[in-house]
């Protein structure tokens, strides 16, 4: 997974797969979902990211799986 933020256009691209998209679905006027040939999500594009999702700061934390005794 890769997340890119383009400050010049205020666009965030979240890539889930390297597969080429064959279809784009508009979820609303600022959010687009790209799908591959099998209908799996390839990427998510967020226009006007500052306003839409508040891209002032982004953090990532991997939560470890619980260990069962």
Keyword list:
five-stranded antiparallel β-sheet, 7% helix, mainly beta, 5 strands
Could you please describe the fold and organization of this structure?
7% of the residues lie in helices and 39% in strands. With 69 residues, it is mainly beta. The protein has one domain (2-53). It is flat, with a radius of gyration of 15 Å. The mean pLDDT is 89.
Element layout with pairings:
Elements: E1 2-6, E2 11-15, E3 23-28, E4 31-35, E5 41-46, H1 49-53
Antiparallel strand pairs: 1-2, 2-5, 3-4, 4-5
Largest sheet strand order = 1-2-5-4-3
Number of helices: 1
Radius of gyration from the alpha-carbon trace, in angstroms: 15 Å
Low-confidence stretches: none
Rounded mean pLDDT is 89
Beta-strand percent range: 35-45%
Count of domain modules: 1
User: Biggest β-sheet: count, sense, barrel?
Assistant: 5 strands, antiparallel
* Element-by-element helix/strand order: EEEEEH
Query: What's the β-strand tally?
Result: 5
Oligomer: single chain
Brief account:
This protein is 7% helix and 39% strand. It has 69 residues and is mostly beta strands. The chain has one domain.
């Amino acid at each position: 997974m890769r997340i890119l933020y383009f400050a010049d256009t205020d666009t965030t691209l979240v890539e889930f797969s390297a597969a080429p998209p064959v279809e784009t679905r508009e979820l609303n006027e600022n959010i687009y979902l790209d799908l591959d040939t099998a209908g799996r999500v390839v990427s998510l594009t967020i226009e006007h990211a500052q306003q839409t999702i508040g891209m002032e700061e982004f953090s990532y934390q991997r939560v470890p799986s619980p260990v069962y005794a």
